[in-house]
Amino acid sequence: MIEEIDYQRILSHVRKKLGPLSDKCWLTTYGLSIDGYAKITVEGKQIPLQRAVYEYIKGPIPEGLHIHHICHVPACCNPNHLEAVSPQENNHLKRSKVFWVQLSLFREIK
Ligand SMILES: [Zn+2]
Question: Which residues surround ligand 1, an ion (CB under 5 A)?
């Protein structure tokens, strides 16, 4: 679980940009890897940034669930755009075309 100081550090690396949803995506450059996802180190362990933010804002992630970006933007960490889904559901959602469209959009603006 991240602390307030970690959350503030994450927010200081966020650019709010209009995405596919009505409220803006929070695009982070913090710990961003080549696949478009971001990671943060907590207590010596690297965890996906979206999991860290989800847990900090919304509480513990139920066992075995993945965090899905409703906006399909991997680098987004707006808690309103994150939902906990089963791995099967997450894979299914990731394979949808819109995910790849959003990923290419993000690469263009980076
Ligand atoms: Zn988003």
Answer: 19, 25, 71, 73, 76, 78, 81
**How many angstroms does the Cα of residue 46 sit away from the middle of ligand 1?**
22
Structure tokens at 1: 């679980």
Report CA(30)–ligand 1 centroid distance (Å): 15
Query: Domain 4-109 adopts which CATH fold?
Result: Homing Intron 3 (I-Ppo) Encoded Endonuclease; Chain A (3.90.75)
Task: Indicate the pTM of the whole model.
Answer: 0.81
Ligand 1 centre and the CA of 73: distance in Å? Answer: 6
The identity of residue 14, as a single letter, is V
| pLDDT tens-digit readout, 25-57 | 999 988 888 888 899 998 899 999 999 999 999
**Distance from C-alpha of 8 to C-alpha of 100, rounded to nearest angstrom:** 29
